């Protein structure tokens, strides 16, 4: 029988491999600008939906920490975007 920690690690590796495959495909493919713009709008809509759904719940449970963690997450995404080019 496979230990539970190893099962979790293998599922995490499988899920993470989708990111690597998608990044490689996006890097190598020639994608039209209108598709990029459409996906950017969809990503913004997802962020808005997540913020609308999860931020009030997080703020209700962890009042002092929720805002800090949210800002830190968006700041980390911004820095990683700028470092990536």
Describe the structure.
The chain is an all-alpha fold and 85 residues long. The chain has two domains: 1-30; 32-85. Helix content is 89%, strand content 0%. Helix 2 runs antiparallel to helix 3. It is flat. The model has no long low-confidence stretch (mean pLDDT 86).
Short description:
This protein is an all-alpha fold and 85 residues long. The protein has helices at 4-28, 33-61, 63-84. It folds into 2 domains: 1-30; 32-85.
Helix content class: over 70%
Distance between the termini: 45 Å
Strand content: under 5%
Helix and strand content put the structural class at mainly alpha
The number of helices is 3
Oligomer: single chain
Low-pLDDT segments, ≥5 res: none
- Strand elements, count: 0
Note the overall shape: flat
Any idea how many domains?
2
**Rg value:** 17 Å
Observed structural traits:
85 residues; 2 domains; 3 helices; single chain; mainly alpha
List the helices and strands and how they pair.
Blueprint: H1 4-28, H2 33-61, H3 63-84
